[in-house]
Fold this sequence. Notes:
There is one protein chain. The model has no long low-confidence stretch (mean pLDDT 90). It contains three helices and eleven strands. 15% of the residues lie in helices and 30% in strands. The protein has helices spanning 4-7, 10-13, 50-59; strands at 20-24, 27-29, 34-35, 38-39, 42-43, 64-68, 72-75, 78-81, 83-84, 102-105, 108-111. A hairpin with a 2-residue loop joins strand 4 (38-39) and strand 5. By secondary structure, the protein is α/β, with parallel strands linked by helices. The longest helix is centred in the middle third of the chain and has 10 residues, at 50-59.
Amino acid sequence: MHPTEYINDPFVIARNDRMVAINSAIEVDLTGQVCSDSIGHRLYSGVGGQVDFIYGASRSKGGIPIIALPSSTTVQEKRVSKIVSTIRPGGGVVTSRSHVRYVVTEYGVADLYARQSANGPGHL
């Protein structure tokens, strides 16, 4: 047993070759920002180690950082996309677009690595 300061240390995590970090999200916007602890202004969960594990896995030799989520959810009997143009107002960005590599839904995988530029997403 180790304290969280050790377990969640991205540099300790990165020492594990082929580290795979699978984290969930509430919303992912088209630039790759990940919201995983709030729904708009309402907090949904506590602070965890998502950024630590995403960063640690990305630094690991052969590591794979993954954000996995269903593409939609039901809200008041309507289907609502979890892949959005922008995070809802008040929603917190937990993992920044610069740390996101793979986003996985039931429809497939988006590899966002190096997809950001001054001209916006996809303009390399």
